Amino acid sequence: xPMPRDEHQPVPEEPAPLRVIGTRPPLYGxxxxxxxxxxxGADISLPGLLHGKVLRSxxxxxxxxxxxxxxxxxxxxxxxxxxxxxxxxxxxERFERDNTLAGDKVLYVGHPIAAVAAESPHIAxxxxxxxxxxxxVLPPVLDVRRAMEADAPLLHExxxxxxxxxxxxxxxxVAEHLQHVKGDPExxxxxxDVIVERSFTTTMVHQGYIEPHASTALWxxxxxxxxxxxxxxxxxxxxxxxxxxHLSMARIRVVPTEIGGGFGGKASSYVDVVxxxxxxKAGRPAKVVMGRDEVLKATGPTPGTFIxxxxxxxxxxxxxxxxxxxxxxxxxxxxxxxxxxxxxIFACYDIPxxxxxxxxxxxxxxxxxxxxxxxxxxxxFAVEQVVDELAERLGIDPLEFRLLxxxxxxxxxxxxxPYPRVGFAEVLEAARAHPHYRxxxxxxxxxxxxxxGYWGNWAGQSCCTISVNADGTVSLLSGSVDVSGALTGIAxxxxxxxxxxxxxxxxxxxxxxxxxxxxxxxGSRTTFGTGLAAIEAACDVIAQMCARAARLWGVPVETVSYxxxxxxxxxxxxxxxxxxxxxxxxxxxxxxxxxxxxxDGDVLRRGGAPGLxxxxxxxxxxxxxxxxxxxxxxxxVGRAVHPGNVEGQIKGGVAQGIGWALYEGCFYGEDGQxxxxxxxxxxLPTAMxxxxxxxxxxxxxxxxxxxxxRGAGETPIVPVAGAIANxxxxxxxxxxxRLPMTPAYILERMGVI
Length: 753
Hints:
The chain has 753 residues and is α+β, with helices and mostly antiparallel strands. 27% of the residues lie in helices and 26% in strands.
């Protein structure tokens, strides 16, 4: 039953005509990457370079009784061996220190214990085998629910649960219990006519980037160090090095190389400190490149989860109550993405009464890290199936049910914040109007599912500088690493503000010694947050050049204006200078002009980005194989700076989401061994597994950004598993309560095996 449009929902204004934003130019650096000229982390080569390798734990949980490195140190070709003893006394936070090089315990298979620097990688590998480590093996705990039990083996004897009540008295594997409450959930459930409750589990999933982590360190005679590394954020790496090496940040220069995939996984530092320790001890530059099995065993996947969702609605279709319990595996050390999972799970809906409890739980697996919209995909996989079931039991079309209950401007989230202007309803209406939603499925064993997802976007701190050249071009330096073409989007915003063609803006990623602090390229923040810094730098350039024109003409600066084509003065209409003409005269009017932009976007009441996905799947009832036939992803992107790049982000997120939904997962044996430590065993989707994905861009401008930009990179992965699960329900009449939904699991749910 179609629902009328809410007449009080504001209608998006028509975007102002723009010259650069909204076009589809080639991406900066694309030619270098496809021709092999781009320099990645493993490509760094310095005179006298040594090669480092890391010794890793074969046990998931054990005390280190002793480490004897003497045989490795005397092996021909070896120049340095380091262990946790080589870290400065008291350096770094305990968990950060221990995850870099284990101290008294190892807490997962692959936990780094020692490292060797040698003349070749082969010699370093041979030397690792000569390091003698004696262990006292302890029982591991590998399941989040088992880890929460009172009698579970403890990973950290000193860890106490933090909650709203403070710190608990007794040790636990639960690092944190967070809670959000809105209204009166008990009263809300008492008003409900229909209540649905289900529980879901998901496995850890690795980001699956192609390029392994790589870092090269060089110490200088003055005691400073330069580190070249593939990272999503040079400044967080600098902080990590400073903390663990007890070294001033001014004495550390981090140079980010090109990045061969990250998806959040390269926001963490794994081998930078080890490379620096080896280089300092050996007195020569040292490079550490992880192997594929090391990446899969010892770098942060996204958490495995247990999620329970309960929701209630009235007969008129309004959701009146909801509660969720989210238990997220943090891996060996606290810090899972349960916070964003708790923030996201009910984010798409206006629910008057709700409670969310989140638990950050340590287990004997690698410390988790971000993976594209960290924490959101498992939460939405769970809640969207419950929402679908509520709609079915009430006899309401699933899309109309979501439109009836969707959040709108001013809706207060369960976590407390009211929404600014966000296109929840506009996305749903665009999906309802799309031909895919009503198209015939065209065969048996086919189903269609939808899911609604949201990512809140992060803004963070960013810095940009823009220098004006005498020929009217400008050079833009960005502190943000170029992930997925973001550098192009940043340059396009600067060009738009300056009134220049994009070809007149040359953009580069700066190292930590050349630009101000800039947060990691993650959280869908880069085009938004660093774009704001570029716009601010462009405005600073314009202000300085207006002052130069005023000086040249001998008029008050307040009479000079710039209309993105020329500088003019209100005192004399005959005086007019183009940007290029004035740039040629800067040396005669005071010297160089460099604009600066320094932004803390987190002070802004920014909106996020909702997306509604429609998935058609076909199931082979004999084998359990799922084929995704058709996929449409509708998303509010605020304003598409580079529509082609936005579409690529949406397609890429959907592809990863399909892999997460159907194939991917980190599977562990009872002893904590990773059972699929290669890409042959850890299946990633290929072009044969992904249908043609149709992105549908909805533009509801974010009012806190001058051009209405929203982050677009993470929302596309959030609804995928939920949409596919709902499609499978239409075929099997069974709710899918586990990720990944492998053929064996689907057949098990169908009662075939």
